[in-house]
Design a protein that fits this description.
Elements (H helix, E strand, L loop, with lengths): L2 H12 L4 H39 L6 H12 L2
Length: 77
């Protein structure tokens, strides 16, 4: 059986399932996506994202306008 047929059968099967099963399949899908991103990002990028989220929670951020003004002032010298 080829992959296209398996996909169609799975879709047909999903149409007959209740909400509980759909939630389980969706959780599996999300977990798979998150896992793929972690592998692609690598440990270093993931730790940077964690640090960025912590900075955001502490209000340690700058507006786009502040950043633009900062760099503009560097070019004006």
């Amino acid at each position: 059986m080829d992959l296209a047929v398996k996909k169609i059968e799975l879709i047909n099967w999903l149409t007959t399932q209740d909400e509980t099963m759909i939630k389980k399949v969706d959780a599996l899908r999300r977990s798979s996506i998150e896992s793929a991103y972690r592998i692609r990002m690598g440990e270093n990028l993931e730790s940077k994202l964690t640090r960025s989220e912590a900075d955001k929670k502490r209000g340690k951020t700058h507006s786009q306008e502040d950043v633009e003004n900062y760099f503009k002032s560097k070019w004006d010298r």
